Amino acid sequence: MYRKWKEAWLFNVRKDILAGMTVALALIPEAIAFSILAGVDPMVGLYASFTIAVTISIVGGRMGMISAATGAMASLMGPIVAKYGIEYLFAATVLTGIIQYAMGVLRFGKFITFIPHAVVTGFVNALAIIIFMAQLTNFEDAGWPMYAMVAGTLAIIYLLPLLTKAVPSALVAIIVMSAVSIGFHLDLRTVGDMGEITQQLPFFHVPDLELSLSALGTMLPFSLALAVVGMTESLMTATIVDEMTETKSDKNKEVRGQGIANIVTGFFGGMAGCAMIGQTVINVKSGGRARLSTFVSGVFLLFLILVLGSVVKQIPMAALVGVMFMVSIGTFDWHSLRTLARIPRGDALVMVVTVAIVVATSNLAIGVVSGVVLSALLFGWKSARIKAHVGVDKHGAKVYRISGQLFFGTMMHFVDLFDYRSDPERIVIDFASSHVWDHSAVTAIAKVTHKYRQLNKHVTMVGLNEESRLLIDREGVSGHVA
Predict the structure, then answer these.
(1) What are phi and psi of 431, to 5 degrees?
(2) Strand 458-462 and strand 426-436: pairing?
(3) Residues in Cβ contact with 282 at an 8 Å cutoff, skipping those fewer than 6 apart
(4) What predicted TM-score, i.e. pTM, was given to this entire model?
(5) pLDDT averaged over consecutive 10-residue blocks of the chain (482 residues)?
(6) How many CA atoms does the CB half-sphere of 405 hold within 13 Å?
(7) SS3 label, residue 481
(8) Is-contact 98 350, C-beta < 8 A?
(9) How far is CA 163 from CA 133, 155, 319, in A?
């Protein structure tokens, strides 16, 4: 037991602690910005980021992944806060967690296996673009010090690893740029300008609303949407981290963990959250691999709020913008651009459409679902091709050798393949190069055999694989199966 715990928490201590500290610094402005987006006090987002990060580090299924308050979730919260108030948001957050936990129990984590690689690539690239675009507002009415600080931050991030990798370059960049800004009294926008940071601990709080079917009906649509978006973003991020670290994760455990984390944060004055691709990339690139890195990010975030709140307020946004530019550059799949002209046109279309929808709507779930639907349509179109190679055997029977998949998309084409009136009395349908997939396919076969039977002609089906044979036998299709 101890060995298993040690492997999950303590195999990478120094790097995990430093990576978690770096992430915590980057979490603060993001949490404040997302709170403003949701229409709540900045501390709601900060408390959520603390409780979710700490909880998911213990119960999550993907080590090294960062979960906290996110923009995708915050964008769905505005209406419920504006119309019903903050207590409904806390209750909806708890309900979101319950729904997600149920999704994990029902093994919804398998959902990720139905997402094509083109959609994953489009998702990643869209997130990189969104992260980059979100930083541009910080340059409004900014003078040369802002540009110089961002450039200095990027220089440290990319050049310091050439000298040493003992500490995360992003952490060094934030510390150095903050010291320069404070030391030279530069006129720069700081974290404190984004919102008020109250140096108080989160406390247990049961949402103050009357429990009733009416209240549940009000919250359910919001909670269901939050649960689906949170699950989608978390599963996609987990898949990306799997690839980045060449390790595997338990997707269903992660969904359950996200549910538990949201239940906890709802009872501690926080809003619903999920995995964060940006902060996760910072963590992984800073060396974070174990659960400890996620735990430290939450604990150090609370430490910054409670103990170093006055210092944190002075951190220049320019330094954090530089870090997020690094995240954007590192997240974007540049290889996908170089190979765009060489991959199948359908895959290229799916990737571009996914990127366009996610960027246009800032809704990750809509973009991913749209990409999956488009992929399914393209696959169906490509698969909906069925042919018959016609010949005559030594006994004078006409043989139709079917090639292609027989399912709902090809059933009408299959029925039209046969020359019912002109065919001889004996017909052989060879399915050796085909497969019977569904009830529609069996119905099509039944139609063909019925048409021949009306003309007093005999049909023999050969070459059926075991699965196709069982499906046809179960439906009771007339005609001889050899």
Answers:
(1) -100, 20
(2) parallel
(3) 19, 22, 23, 26, 66, 170, 323, 326, 327
(4) 0.79
(5) 75 92 90 85 94 96 93 86 93 97 92 84 87 86 90 94 87 92 90 84 90 88 91 90 90 96 96 92 91 96 90 89 87 87 89 91 81 88 85 89 89 91 91 90 90 91 88 69 57
(6) 11
(7) strand
(8) no
(9) 31, 13, 20
